[in-house]
Amino acid sequence: MDLMVKARLIHFETNRYAPPLRRVRVPSGKRRRSATQTDMTKGGILPQLLKFMAPVVLGNLFQQLYNLTDMFIAGRFLGANAVAAVGSVGSLMFLLIGFMMGLTSGCAVVTGQRFGAGDYEGVKNSVVGAAIISVIMAIAGTLVGVFTLDAILRAMRMPADIYADGRAYIRIIYLGLAANMLYNIVASLMRAVGNSKAPLYFLMLAAALNVVLDILFIAVLHMGVEGTALATVIGQGVSGAASLIYMIKKTPILRVSVKHWIPDFKTIRKQIAIGAPMAVQFSITAAGIIVIQSALNTFGVNPVAGYAAAMKVDQVIEQPIFALGATMAIFAAQNTGAKLPNRIKKGALIMIGMVMLYGVFSIVVSRMTIEDVTRFLISGESEERIRDIIFYANIYTTHAITFTFILGILMLARNALQGCGYSLFPMIGSIIELVSRSYFATAAAARGDFGGVCLAQPITWGVTSVFLWAVFAVIFLRGPSAPKRSDKAVISKPL
Question: Of 164, 303, 469, 485, most Cβ neighbours within 10 A?
Answer without folding.
Answer: 303
